[in-house]
């Protein structure tokens, strides 16, 4: 990878929606050693909005032109999930490091195309945006578990709730778009792959149409631990991420990371964020900084790999298969690459 003489990695960001605009802001303001040199979005108005206030940045509606542009050393992909595989492969072919938002692709077959393209290039260029691994609270949870804080882990309880589902959400997109974070973070916490899954659901909330929400997914890992995952996109009250590990000597759990409490009308209260951006702001910043640091040092990326992206999608496919077979216990096929 060639970077400018002043040791700055020039980043091209593809997709300037909620996540892409957030990554532009984080890279521009909070990550050292990086500048945003180009932003691509098929909606150029969005690209221009994200570019406002960023110095020396150009916008385009053509993501492939961005990837090939000489002013771009490395690529962040934050466009729709359907575009991830082709854009990641284009970045690989251009020989540029690429940080693709989750999911790496929508199917195992598409992920395999990326893994094979990367192997053909002979360089580990792909990173996947499973940022929870960089969240200080999750990192501390993993350290506590490793240090034996709760003894031998037996059960994990994961909860992921949002205010409202995004437009066009479906039962499947809840799995491949939201639960997928758990399919990466659970094996990472436990150091054990997910081997078997099953999908369950109660009745949906009355206002929810067109998808099953909430959903409850059971994951078995190779170490014999059982994990419950509740994903509730329309929980309304706030964005709320929980994880508790139950061991033979106690429990360790994430705490609600609030900084302010108010007291009024005989009540003490703390708030919830409206979406993931405030909750995981540190995680996105630390993830991008770690990625940039590795590029500058000429070292391999410490972010999740294309193989990790593929593994999580293989779990998602097993969960969707269970959903389509009345919650049947379904083995996870980890494709050989
Ligand atoms: N890691 C996380 O916590 C996290 C959180 C939210 C979203 N995401 C991921 O980030 C991605 C974007 O999500 P979002 O919520 O910002 O969606 P969004 O709909 O707000 O933004 C997507 C943007 O991509 C643009 N786009 C679509 N196709 C394009 C193409 N071919 N070339 C250039 N631009 C294109 C759209 O015009 C839109 O502006 C998704 O893959 C999503 O799964 C990750």
Q: Helix/strand-derived class?
A: alpha/beta
Major beta sheet, specifics? 7 strands, mixed
Which range does the strand content fall in?
15-25%
What is the H/E string? EHEHEHEHEHEHEHEEEEEEEHHHE
Radius of gyration: 20 Å
What is the end-to-end distance? 26 Å
Residue windows where pLDDT falls under 50 for at least 5 positions: none
Enumerate the distinct ligands.
nicotinamide-adenine-dinucleotide
List the helices and strands and how they pair.
Layout: E1 9-14, H1 18-30, E2 34-40, H2 44-51, E3 58-60, H3 63-68, E4 74-77, H4 84-93, E5 98-100, H5 108-121, E6 126-128, H6 136-146, E7 153-161, H7 171-190, E8 194-200, E9 215-221, E10 226-232, E11 240-247, E12 251-253, E13 261-264, E14 267-270, H8 276-279, H9 281-297, H10 306-323, E15 330-331
Parallel strand pairs: 1-2, 1-4, 2-3, 4-5, 5-6, 7-10
Antiparallel strand pairs: 7-11, 8-9, 8-15, 9-10, 11-12, 13-14
Helix pairs in contact: 1-2, 1-9, 4-5, 5-10, 7-10
Q: Your description of this structure?
A:
It is a single chain. The protein has a 7-stranded mixed β-sheet. With 337 residues, it is α/β, with parallel strands linked by helices. It has 10 helices and 15 strands. Bound molecules: nicotinamide-adenine-dinucleotide. Nicotinamide-adenine-dinucleotide (NAD) binds at residues 14-20, 40-43, 46, 63, 78-81, 83, 101-102, 129, 131, 177, 276, 280.
């Amino acid at each position: 990878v060639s970077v400018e003489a002043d040791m700055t990695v020039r980043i091209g960001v593809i997709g300037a929606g909620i996540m892409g605009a957030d990554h532009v802001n984080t890279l521009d303001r909070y990550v050292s050693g990086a500048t945003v040199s180009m932003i691509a979005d098929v909606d150029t108005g969005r690209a221009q909005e994200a570019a406002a206030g960023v110095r020396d940045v150009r916008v385009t509606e053509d993501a492939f032109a961005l990837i090939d542009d000489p002013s771009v050393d490395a690529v962040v992909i934050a466009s729709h999930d359907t575009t991830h595989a082709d854009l990641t492969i284009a970045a690989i072919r251009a020989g540029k490091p690429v940080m693709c938002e989750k999911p790496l692709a929508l199917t195992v077959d598409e992920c395999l195309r990326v893994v094979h393209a990367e192997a053909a290039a002979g360089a580990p260029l792909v990173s996947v945006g499973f940022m929870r691994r960089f969240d200080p609270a999750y990192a501390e949870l993993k350290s506590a578990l490793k240090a034996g804080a709760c003894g031998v882990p037996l059960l994990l309880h994961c909860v992921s709730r949002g205010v409202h589902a995004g437009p066009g959400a479906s039962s499947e997109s809840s799995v491949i778009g939201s639960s997928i974070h758990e399919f990466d973070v659970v094996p990472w916490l436990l150091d054990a792959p997910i081997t078997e899954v099953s999908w369950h659901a109660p009745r949906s909330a009355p206002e929810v149409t067109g998808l099953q929400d909430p959903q409850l997914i059971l994951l078995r890992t190779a170490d014999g631990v059982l994990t419950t995952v509740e994903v509730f996109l329309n929980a309304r009250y706030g964005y709320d991420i929980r994880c508790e590990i139950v061991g033979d000597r106690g429990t360790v759990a994430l705490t609600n990371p609030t900084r302010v409490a108010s007291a009024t009308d005989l009540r003490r209260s703390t708030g919830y964020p409206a979406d993931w951006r405030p909750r995981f702001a540190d995680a996105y910043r630390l993830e991008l900084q770690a990625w940039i640091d590795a590029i500058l040092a000429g070292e391999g990326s410490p972010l999740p790999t294309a193989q990790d992206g593929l593994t999580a999608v293989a779990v998602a496919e097993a969960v969707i298969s269970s959903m389509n077979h009345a919650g049947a216990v379904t083995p996870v096929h980890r494709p050989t690459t």
